[in-house]
Amino acid sequence: MASNKELTLATRPVPGYSVKDTMAKNSQIEWTHHTFNPWWGCSKVSPACDNCYAELWAKRMGHQLWGGDAPRRFFSDSHWRDPLVWNEEAGSEKVRARVFCASMADVFEKRYDLDGQRKRLWKLIAETPNLDWLLLTKRPQNIGSMIPWKAEAWPDNVWLGTTVENQKFAGQRLPHLLKHKAAVRFLSCEPLLGPIDLSPWTKAKDLQPIDWVIAGGESGPGARPMHPDWATKLLAQCQEKNIAFHFKQWGHWVPAEIATHTPKSSIISLPAERPVTMVRLPKKEAGRMLQGTTWDGVPVGRDLVHG
After folding, report:
1. pLDDT category of residue 265 using cuts at 50, 70 and 90
2. Is 54 helix (H, G, I), strand (E, B) or coil?
3. Structural domain includes residue 305
4. 305 confidence band (pLDDT: 50, 70, 90)
5. Is residue 306 part of a domain?
6. 73 occurs within a structural domain
7. 278 — alpha (psi -120 to 50), left (phi > 0) or beta?
């Protein structure tokens, strides 16, 4: 298992994100290489879920899968064989690959009808040692009761993350995440809906360290703007504590000062730490430049496959 001091910053580029990329080799999500969904469907638990892209995509595909009473969509054996192929390819190329699991669900959702799928996922993770599995959840309080590994024996190809959209949910979720000795612990601060001070957890002596922060604004219908100070202050904290930082996107709202053009019908004033004017643009036009550069930091404990 890699220690925090052993983690290095990698800048291996991965192309831009597409909502269509719900299960794919060569994922278009910037911070991963593949995506894998053991099932589709979830329930909303916090403000980050309000404009859930996964729910919208499922509806476009004709599926009603969101909510506690809704069914979940399961998949065939051929779907589950894909990561085995990716694992063989990574072994042949001698380069590890990251797998985001799951973009259309929450692995730690508490439903008994998901227990069999979870067991199958744990088995798949064990069978694919050349893949680093990125398990992202909004329910970190359920992790301990659902994983098959003992506290001191996490597999070294599991990266564990939680969504943290503002300070309130940082306080609720980080203590549950950071008690686990996964190879990597990461935060998805996307959509970033408020300022976040990580110091209560970066200074804590009884918790595991934060290894990676992914930040970004919201896209899609109803997207809420992200004040630029929220992102830049997260970046500064990561730089101070040697935490890998990845800025994924502005989303549909970008500061007017860096906008390519300013359509008058899509300008708002956003007060927070300081007033700022935000412009609504298509996501690709808004881009992902923060303080004049792109931030593609990724923590890598073992970037090469060892035979």
Report:
1. confident
2. helix
3. no
4. low
5. no
6. yes
7. beta
